[in-house]
Queue: 4 jobs
Job 1
Amino acid sequence: MGFSLQSFEYEKIKILFSKFPNLLNEDFEARMKKAIGVLHFDYLWGACKEAEKILPKCKQDNLFDLIMKLYTKKRKTHQANFLLLHCFENALRSTLCVKIANLYNTSNDDPWFKAINSNSNGLNNILKLFNKRKKHLGGKEAQNSWEVFDCFYLVDLEDIISFHWGEFAPIFKNEKRYKGQDLPSYGTKDHLLTKLSQIRKAKNEIFHNKPTKIKFRKDLEILLLRLEYNLEDAIEIGDIKESIDLRYNYKDVG
């Protein structure tokens, strides 16, 4: 018989719960091996380690259900972080897009990104970034500012802020109150870029399904408020099930 990764990982789980042999029955083994084959293993293993610490304090009859409860909690945290980062990147991208378009368009049209040899170093730097990323348009030409900025990565947005710190500084460093609450400021370009870099690194980990130890939520909320973004409204998305149309029956058929 050849190598089985599911069996290999299950042996680690058996060792972890060796003090609770009564819970390691055939049903648990079958369900865990199936879970190993379809779930994110780092989160699953983390849930197992958390369950192992809980068991001495709280008697459990079904170890698999306990692990799945803890796994679901980790998954919800991951999904919440994903949503927050998605909101942040969209808000930052749109803010920069509007500001740059307003800065460089000199007529009622939107052609600033078609410039070739500009006298502005800031504009030339953005055009270099765009030429580097426009492959994402699939060979088509950008029709407006939105399509240009949709090509940029988060690290590109950091560079654009750096190129145009004079234009963007008031958003991040000026005194600002939100409903009677003083918001912390980012007084220097380096201060802001350091925070944006931390958020970007957290995003890269989370979007690649890796748990992150980077603390980013506080700064993300502050920055969104400074961008005039109502995060409270954004996270009120209700039950996600109503947006997913399942075609098959998932209930047991008698």
Note: The chain has a mean pLDDT of 93.
Job 2
Amino acid sequence: MDLNDARILVVGATGVLGQRLCERLGEHTGNLVVTGRSAADAEQLRARLGARAAHALDLVDHDEAAAVVRTAAEELGGFDAVVIATGVAAFGPAAEEDEAVVEELFEVNALGPMAVVRAALPHLVDGGAVAVLTGVVAELPLAGMGAYAASKAAMASWLGSLRRELRPRRIAVVDARLPHMDTGLVDRALAGLPPALPPGHNIDDVIAALERGLERGAREVRID
């Protein structure tokens, strides 16, 4: 797809990775609607980038999320792409996982993004793109990451089914299997302490790969 002047909704735009991605997309288009948990943070980002609009969006509230998506579609006149850059982590033995933590992992990493995509599809042009940041953890469930990995794997599996269903509309479904980066995500974990991790990948390299993935309509985005 051509990113120049593309109409793009970015969910999770106020996180470290989301902001960097919006900065890169903003080099191509001003037709961005950005969302974050904090309305103030989203508005600050909108003003800095000159984006079209900003909204608070809580993925745990599916009805609210769908309403924000519909509003964004009205503001942009439809979507050429929808990018979901949200995520939370939690660590600890599977046998000791807290039910409330597991539920939030699945809401933010899987169920909420699914609701956003469902709400966006009627407004997404044929030949457009949906991109969701899942992570390598979706396919590499290390010890101490049971529910976290499962939530990401659930999202990745759903995207695989969606990709097949959207073939007649030529909509690219991009699964971003991103590596560990020093974004502070693990330090904000809902529970537990992360295992020893290798040095984080360069964020600029990851953003460049995401940009190429959107432009090419890639099935997956990976960083070796």
Note: Helices lie at 16-26, 39-49, 62-76, 99-120, 146-165, 203-216.
Job 3
Amino acid sequence: MDSDEHKRVLDPERDTAALKALTHPLRIQLLGLLRQHGPATASELAARTGESSASTSYHLRVLAKYAFIAEAEHRDGRERRWRALHTLTSWSNESMEATEAGRAFVGLARRRQIEHLERSLARYEADLAAGRLGQEWVEPSGITDLMPRLTAASLTELFDTVAGKLEELTARDADDPRAEHVVFVAAGLPLAAPEHAAPEHADREPEDHEAEDRHPADLDPADPAPADPAPADRETAGRDPEDRAVTAHDAEDLNP
């Protein structure tokens, strides 16, 4: 495992068990919630996710075993609090593609990011309608859906440029009281031409979706979690959009 103060870098050859542990939707969600909202107990996370405390406690211990989280300072001696050890999870797509476990993890992480985007859109619309966000956020918010023609090198340069600019702006706005958490999801997914496609110089029909709306104890991770108690015993509450679960660079993200 390579890591620094802010980033956990996964290697599919050395971190097989850790990947297996993280290839679980609830664990990705729990990790993302700890990253976004800070330390919490199993009961607090159960309330956020609609799971039982027994289930969240089990999955938190799995995350701790593989060094994604650790115990935090306790407010009292009655219940453990957990904290995320890194702000994001990173990996090499090329390395992940070489192993079955790596492919499974990346596929799950990307789908969780899409689910996160859907929940975040619903949250954004509700916050705006309820007046929890000011009108200054209306114009810059949105989702872009474009299909440029790029080389692999250009796509890499695009991601590097966006990541660098995002780091710069995040540092600039860190202490600005006007700043809010912004869910930023970027995707670059090349699509091979259909087998029946005409030669490259033939006219291309525009894609229907090309549009832009202006301006991410000893536990075996494969073991099932303890059975949930009866529905009457489950703790439920309103659900926040997670994470920073796993984002493309986390990914949440895993640059959940």
Note: Residues 100-129 form the longest helix (30 residues).
Job 4
Amino acid sequence: MTCLRCGFKFNCICAMEPQLQSAADFVLLTHARESSKDTNTGILMTRTLPSCRVEMWHRTQPPQALLNQLQDPSYQAWLVFPSDEQHLATPLTLPTPDSTKLLLIIIDATWQEARKMVRKSPWLNQLPRIALIPENTSSYSLRRNQQPGHLCTCEVGIELLKQLHHPQAAQQLQDYFTHFIEIYHADKSGHAK
């Protein structure tokens, strides 16, 4: 029987799920096509980080809850996205304890879709950007045509946790992600690992 939480039939991974904490809030701005894919790794972040939530992206209707949060002076919002000529990426710095809380918005889509989402969302273009320079290459292998140097959503979360000085949480999420990738292949082949 398929597990309703992790989606695996032969190899439930729920017992491996860590419970993590972070100094920042995370929002996965998710493309509609991404939300239904069983290869989506953003779900690993929402399961493990209570400070992580999903907002669905629609071209003509921005998510009102997120727009409201962007107007809240108690948050310092950043778009996690590669820099280009118009937007210089800035290193991630933690706010002081008596100041604002970090709000990290991660585009949860293929890179082709992500670029279109940002281009078609003027409200996203107003945000400062963080471009990650990962220490390692991506180990995400569940989709074809992955562009070199790009990370999947969960790997972005892992890198952000490292930059936020949460090495233990980053390692736990990395272990959970690695386990997910390994189990995915076995489960889709129809056998227990």
Note: Residues 27 and 172 are 20 Å apart (CA to CA).
